[in-house]
Design goal:
CATH topology of the largest domain: TIM Barrel
Number of domains: 2
Radius of gyration: 23 Å
CATH architecture of the largest domain: Alpha-Beta Barrel
Bound molecules: pyridoxal-5'-phosphate
Protein name: Alanine racemase
GO molecular function: alanine racemase activity; pyridoxal phosphate binding
Helix content: 25-40%
Function: Catalyzes the interconversion of L-alanine and D-alanine. May also act on other amino acids.
Cofactor: pyridoxal 5'-phosphate
Distance between the termini: 17 Å
Number of strands: 18
Pfam family, one: Ala_racemase_N
Largest sheet: 8 strands, mixed
Order of helices and strands: EHEHHEHEHEHEEHEHEHEEEEEEEEHHE
């Protein structure tokens, strides 16, 4: 093996407990996209054991995979387009989001002796999913064949708690909830908050929060909300790889495709067996690995399966050593936040893009 993701499920459990306590409501653990790259089923089980009330996924396929793994907790799938297999959702007790009259019609049609469990998704200002222009056409009649379990919406700027748009979305959500209540659905689960709102906007907690990134121990926005440590979150993912080759090179040696960088002094280089096909961003500049007790920055372009780091002339590293690409930072290693900053992106993208050929191992982190 040459690279592995090590997921510390006890960190996930800690984060779920912390977030649930912060919210003071039910908690939906967002496990879409292979649990943000951490592994769908193990994370789902850990979240439930730590008190998560619901699981949330984007795709119906993801929800079906959870049921096939024997998970019985309530599951909501919210990216279910018209044409989806709603009968299967009903059969497997998978809650589905409805965001259009067309989808609602199909969901109704699929409901026979057993009714579909539906969460109405409403657009309060994110301008992505959810009812908007069709909302005023929705009547109790459209809903008579389904079980309306919930109503939800999504914040666009929860990571900027001072922005007026948050208050506007909250007010609009309350209006939309009132409308559904006026149809006689007074007992629906209202949910609006993502991780950032769970942490910073208690007024938006309603009956349930939907936490994704924070459950994995990462900050929704390092600049505006602080980092994992200041939020008392524990990053669950550590990425390690083999440094399959260490070599001495003189100063002014060009490194990699395009010779985009050269060594500035006589040094040792380490070649890491992971590349952009595994999710290491090709544009990363200013991150690297933790090797032999110190940081070594990447040098030259990231290749498909490998990248090179400058270990420094004094490094004790040897061919075949394992290095930490990112972890929770507690030993001085780079974090997913660092890799995000070095790649002009966010920690979400760093963890979710790690490719399928990197095995996920469930264990305590190693250094
Ligand atoms: C992905 C997603 C979330 C989780 O967002 P985080 O910022 O990761 O907490 C919550 N709700 C919906 C609808 C989502 O798509």
């Amino acid at each position: 093996m040459r690279a592995e993701v090590i997921v510390d499920l006890s960190a996930i459990k800690h984060n779920v407990e912390l977030l649930k306590k912060t919210a003071g409501t039910k908690l939906l653990a967002v496990v879409k996209a292979d649990a943000y790259g951490h592994g769908l089923v193990p994370v789902a089980k850990a979240a439930i054991s730590a008190g998560a009330d619901y699981l949330g996924v984007a795709l119906l396929e993801e929800a079906i995979a959870l049921r096939e793994a024997g998970i019985e907790a309530p599951i909501l799938a919210w990216l279910v387009q018209p044409g989806s297999d709603f009968k299967k959702a009903i059969e497997l007790d998978i809650d589905v989001a409805a965001a259009s009259l067309k989808a609602l019609q199909e969901i109704s049609d699929a409901s026979e002796s057993k009714k579909a469990r539906v969460h109405l998704e409403v657009d309060t200002g994110m301008t992505r999913g959810g009812f908007l222009s069709e909302w005023d056409q929705l009547t109790a009649e459209h809903l008579k064949n389904v079980e309306v379990v919930g109503i939800f919406s999504h914040f666009a700027r929860a990571d900027e708690p001072g922005e007026a748009q948050n208050d506007e979305q909250l007010a609009r959500f309350n209006d939309m909830v009132e409308r559904v209540r006026s149809f006689g659905f007074t007992n629906v689960i209202r949910h609006l908050s993502n991780s950032a709102a769970t942490i910073k906007n208690h007024a938006a907690a309603f009956d349930m929060v939907r936490t994704g990134i924070a459950m994995y121990g990462l900050s929704p926005d390092v600049k505006t909300l602080g980092n994992s440590q200041s939020l008392a979150l524990r990053p669950a993912m550590q990425l390690r790889a083999a440094m399959y080759l260490v070599k001495d090179v003189p100063a002014d040696t060009p490194v990699g495709y395009g010779a985009s960088e050269s060594t500035t002094a006589d040094t040792k280089l380490g070649v890491i067996a992971m590349g952009y096909a595994d999710g290491i961003p090709r544009i990363a500049h200013g991150a690297g690995v933790w090797s032999a007790g110190k940081k070594a920055f990447s040098i030259g372009r990231v290749s498909m399966d490998q990248f090179v780091v400058d270990l420094g002339a004094q490094s004790k590293a040897q061919s075949g050593d394992w290095v930490v690409i990112f972890g929770n930072g507690s030993h001085g290693e780079f974090t997913a936040d660092d890799w995000g900053a070095a790649s002009q992106t966010i920690n979400y993208e760093i963890v979710t893009r790690i490719g399928p050929r990197v095995p996920r191992i469930y264990a305590a982190h190693v250094y």
